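Lab meeting prep.
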Amino acid sequence: MAESKPYKKPLPRVDEESRGYWEALARHQLYFQRCRDCGTKRFYPRALCPRCLSSSTEWVRASGRGAVYSFTVTHQNQAPGFREELPYVLAIVELDEGVRIMTNVVGCAPDAIRIGMRVEVVFDDVTAEITLPKFRPAA
């Protein structure tokens, strides 16, 4: 849930290409896009398919489960909002559906994170308008 103190980190810019993604996150659902013409799955949201340049797009609900593809543990960051959470894990998670998403892994010690570790989405309501997807070790 959103904290009572103000959120200090930069917030995403919601635009027409990404609005459906952010609206789904506010409902605690994770979506990615798929091209209706060639079937290419994609994340991050964008207007045109990177493979065939089609604008025919559909939103697909993700399972919210995947595996850590890559990660780094950040021990130094003096920017407001980040320094209070040190150390933190920045990761690329490959969803079971095949798309990769940059995120944070939460809910476990940074030294316990491993490539291939199974994770599941959790939703962080950082403001009344913005929810961020983060991942924790799978139950």
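Slide two material, second protein:
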Amino acid sequence: MGGRVYSIDSLRAIAMTMVIAQHSGLLPFGWTGVWLFYVISGFVISRNFIEENATADLRPSAHYLSFLVRRTFRIIPPYVAYILLCMIAALIINLPPQAREIPYLATFTYNWRMIFSLQEQSPIFGHLWTISVEEQFYLFFPWVILLLRRDVTIRALLAIVALGPIFRFLLAQYLSASFPSDPGRISFGVYASSLGQFDAFALGSLLAHFESNIRKSPHIARRMMWLAIVVGTFYAITYACLNALAGARGIDVIRNIISGIAFGEKREVFVYIAVDLGAAAIVAGAIAGWKVFKFLEHPKLVSVGQASYSGYLLHPLTLIVIHKITPSTGIAGSIAFKLIIFCVAWICTVAVARASYTMFERHFIRYGHLISNRILAKSRHGQPAASTAAVVASGRSSESV
């Protein structure tokens, strides 16, 4: 494996931009940026484990502990800072009380809270269900790599990919029985469930296990892209035809197809297959170094990607503040107005996120790596601590930060 894949950072920037565009009312399928984040997370976390396993004889428990330390120092400080900022902002701009959400945010169970709660979703915390999904993935997934041989790990990952649609089907059936008159809740329940979306992470992990193959044979990435296009096209045509048979006409024929609120005729089960394959193919293209992706290596875009986590956290609050201070006009619902809101929100979000990453988050990241290296050094059998720290630090260049 090579060093850090900078184009992956840029893909994070694009994923964040897609989500901001959707929440600005511009990009109906911007939610798929979250699934691109999922695939990237599976790739970078697995890549780091693979590199560490190749360079050091580590106890699985120490390996897992060092991983949790790095993730804690990367995820928690900006996450807590955002929650505190939101609590203050809610008082200043007169938003509904948010304190009832804190126990679920603190335990990273917020996605299940949103799925089963009948209360209105928080406008400033609503997007944090995705962080809960990621943290639930981090809790158990590393053991698949740490305790199993490579061939068994790959089979386990393929099983997770295959089981994803099955779990979504079962969850949709359960939610249909619990909320028979609320299709929106059913579709959101599948959308925000963790086990139902772990197949996206597993695809990213498979890319990490076959990264050297993709680099040596870029045609693998091309075949993945063609597969994603064929599956996505087949899915879209199938459900467009079903919409038409149900009486839809005009633009309604393509409604609720590639949508985060997809429901009916089992689309809530299958839409994520198309989205996951598309995201995995894009990441594979970045790994293969496709010329079309060369722009992804631009330092400015990479720097935005490095701060994309805090940017993702901040963007809903930024949009709320912008809407609060923007006077109501007759063009408020126009595309031009939404485009202006998006541009202002993106610029403000990225500026604050870059400042947060440079002046705040990076110090915690370095400290987390320092503690992690010490844990790994102590677990290394027969190698001096300083040498082990150097070895694991060299592998750390690929980890998501």
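Talking points for slide two:
The radius of gyration is 21 Å.
The chain has a mean pLDDT of 87.
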